[in-house]
Specification:
heterodimer, A: alpha+beta, about 20% strand, B: mainly beta, 4-stranded antiparallel beta sheet
Chain lengths: ~100, ~375
């Protein structure tokens, strides 16, 4: 089971309380995790990555195991601790405000 | 007794105010979608319980929300706004060409006759339509692909399509306005378009009489007289009597002809309201006095409406989609400020009072008059 942590606004939008836990078939990558997330919560389509290009939105980043994975290839395997569920895949919104 | 519902979009959520026809005791609901910028909400004339809302964020992109119960509950609908074909480029601030990129929905205009049909004006400028209650969106790409498209350029707020007016007698006739391209008209339901900017005379562009490049801030129409349009331009208040074929200036004796919103009295097609702003570099009222100006002559002669509005030390702005009228008698006028006040007049602008004073910065105000 893959664990996903989303920013507050996306949890509210999707009606999610706490972490998301999802089965991901095949290799666990950014793409397969986000595909599974969007299949389970269609309202999140377009909010994390572009509808067409699937590029990550500019003010979001992806973290896991204390590493910034945002610039990794979408099809690169995620760390084993994410695959086993020991660590979550974290979507982080850029901090802003005063 | 009739009721009024005021729909307010702010930088940090949506608010819904309701009152009976006396309009003196308001119930405030919200914030809905707290923390998100709500650029616009508007109810369907064909089914007032149906309301569409544009919820947007620099982080998370665009969401469109729909209510089927007058704003009590909401559901997200479709947010896939994809330009037809290869979008191409438009002019950027520095004169270079820049790819067309969807940013947000500025304005939602429900069809006068069908609750499931709604138009969306977006940044970068384009017009989309949904025929299924907002679930799916298709571009009316004849507008963006007009031959003048590559020369359109953004205003300071982005290259936004912010005004959509549908002729109530002829739904094939649609007017839109884009900052800073100008006004456009379709006579075939949105398939093809042509600029209607003759006479605008914008001093800030190289050719004052250019076909496009005019920074139109807002256009208003009275439903009984759809060939007459009133425009608040970047500078100048303008009027056309022939559906945009030609425009003439009606700024007259206004203290400043810069501003953003403009609207028309519900029962008097020649009574027009504007809120003058000092200048494009100082976005606050002239002399720090918040004044609504009313013309009862279709422009040219204006009178200041000040009773109940701050007449000293006022430095708020009123954005282009932030004024609306109800259709009660006497007509009610409403506007919201960047300081978070929403003012209402239940006597055609003569006196004003604040429904609320401390909202987030107001982006839009719409009014529904309910049976």
């Amino acid at each position: 089971m893959i664990r996903i942590v989303l920013p507050t606004h996306l949890r509210t939008l999707a009606g999610i309380d706490g972490e998301v836990q999802l089965e991901v078939r095949g290799q666990v990558t950014q793409r397969s995790v986000l595909d599974a997330l969007e299949a389970a919560y269609p309202v999140l389509r377009g909010t994390i990555r572009d509808h067409v290009t699937h590029r990550r939105r500019a003010f979001l980043r992806f973290f896991a195991c204390d590493e910034d994975l945002s610039l990794e290839a979408p099809d690169a395997p995620l760390p084993e601790l994410v695959v086993t569920g020991a660590q979550p895949f974290v979507v982080v919104a850029a901090l802003a405000g005063g | 007794m009739s009721r009024v519902r005021v729909l307010v979009g702010t930088r940090k959520g949506a608010f819904v105010f309701t009152a009976d026809g006396k309009r003196d005791d308001w119930k405030v609901s919200g914030p809905h979608f707290a923390g998100w910028a709500i650029y616009h909400l508007k109810g369907s004339p064909a089914d007032p319980s149906r309301i569409y809302a544009s919820q947007t964020s620099g982080w998370f992109g665009q969401v469109v929300q729909r209510s089927d119960d007058g704003g009590e509950t909401w559901q997200p609908v479709g947010n896939r706004f994809v330009y037809d074909g290869t979008p191409g480029t438009h002019q950027w601030y520095d004169g270079t060409q820049h790819p067309w990129e969807f940013a947000r929905v500025w304005h939602l205009e429900p069809s006068p006759s069908d609750p499931d049909t709604v138009y969306a004006g977006v940044e970068d400028a384009a017009l989309f339509r949904s025929n299924d209650g907002g679930r799916t969106w298709s571009e009316l790409s004849g507008l963006r692909t007009h031959t003048s498209g590559p020369s359109w350029q953004p205003g300071a707020g982005g290259m936004c399509l912010h005004t959509i007016l549908i002729d109530p007698a002829n739904p094939d006739r649609i007017f839109v306005a884009i900052s800073a391209a100008g006004a456009f008209r379709s006579d075939d339901g949105g398939s093809s378009w042509r600029p209607i900017n003759r006479g605008l005379g914008s001093a800030s562009i190289p050719s004052q009489e250019a076909e496009v490049g005019h920074c139109v801030h807002r256009i208003a129409m009275h439903p009984s007289r759809p060939d007459v349009l009133f425009m608040q331009k970047h500078w100048d208040v303008m009027r056309t009597d022939d559906a945009g074929e030609s425009w003439h200036e009606i700024s007259g004796d206004l203290p400043s002809d810069f501003g953003f919103p403009i609207d028309v009295h519900a029962h008097e097609p020649d009574t027009v309201y504007v809120i003058p702003i000092k200048s494009d570099t100082e976005h606050y009222p002239p002399d720090a006095r918040l004044r609504v100006y009313r013309s009862r002559t279709g422009g040219g002669n204006w009178e200041a409406m000040t009773e109940g509005l701050p007449q000293r030390d006022c430095y708020v702005n009123v954005l282009r989609d932030s004024m609306a009228v109800d259709s009660l008698d006497p007509c009610g006028i409403y506007f919201g400020t960047t300081g978070g006040q929403v003012y209402a007049s239940r006597d055609e602008g003569r006196t004003w009072s604040a429904i609320v004073r401390d909202l987030p910065s107001v982006l839009s105000v719409e009014v529904q008059t309910l049976p």
